[in-house]
Amino acid sequence: MKFCSDCGHSLILAIPAGDLRERFICSHCGRIHYQNPNLVVGVIAHWQDQVLLCRRGIEPQKGLWCLPAGFMENGESSDEGAMREAKEETCAELEIQSLYAVYNLPHINQTYMYYRAKLLSPKVEAGLETLEAQLFKQNEIPWSQLAYPSIAAALHQFFIDHKSSQSGEEKYPLIHETINNQASLLGNAS
């Protein structure tokens, strides 16, 4: 960041009064420009024993499979954002059941929040940013073609929890992990 979004003057990096961290501060108008992590919200949507994946039609990771997810927008809650992303990417009609996984990725300034959701119909189709949308059973998932290791980790745990929930009470404990780099998940996802 080099210039103030309010007045266009140059920014300096300094610790503002009453703060403990360096921030970009406008050298002219004094506005402090805070930079905060981005929230990525999405769903692990299921229909019976299948989960919904979409093949990315945009970069990054164009052509690879992922959960319906994207950046949260201003003015929406995290579950509203997850539902919006699912609708935009897969045209899915779904019902949010609960927050399922939170992955903190401080090395890229992002936090992923995946909600467990039930599809109201198996009818899905590709949205504007998606090449295709499809339901997969666990043994059909293109594991080697998933866009990010956090997706594989969340899906592996979801199938374990989903199977145990089929035999009685629902058991979907909240996953909460901090990942210092995507490669650290590879051991958990295999």
Please tag this protein with its features.
single chain, 190 residues, alpha+beta, Ubiquitin Ligase Nedd4, Chain: W, Nucleoside Triphosphate Pyrophosphohydrolase, 2 domains, 8-stranded mixed beta sheet, 3-stranded antiparallel beta sheet, 3 helices, 35% strand, elongated, disordered C terminus
Describe the structure.
The protein is 18% helix and 35% strand. It has helices spanning 78-90, 149-166, 186-189; strands spanning 11-14, 23-26, 32-33, 38-47, 50-56, 65-66, 69-71, 94-105, 110-119, 130-137, 175-178. The strands form 2 sheets. Strands 4, 5, 6, 7, 8, 9, 10 and 11 form an 8-stranded mixed β-sheet that branches. Strands 1-2-3 form a 3-stranded antiparallel β-sheet, with no helix packed on it. A hairpin with an 8-residue loop joins strand 1 (11-14) and strand 2. Residues 184-190 have low confidence and may be disordered. With 190 residues, it is an alpha+beta fold. It is built from 3 helices and 11 strands. The chain has 2 domains: 1-35, Single Sheet (Ubiquitin Ligase Nedd4, Chain: W), CATH 2.20.70.10; 38-189, Nucleoside Triphosphate Pyrophosphohydrolase, CATH 3.90.79.10.
SSE layout and pairings?
Blueprint lengths: L10 E4 L8 E4 L5 E2 L4 E10 L2 E7 L8 E2 L2 E3 L6 H13 L3 E12 L4 E10 L10 E8 L11 H18 L8 E4 L7 H4 L1
Parallel strand pairs: 4-9, 8-11
Antiparallel strand pairs: 1-2, 2-3, 4-5, 4-7, 5-6, 5-10, 8-9
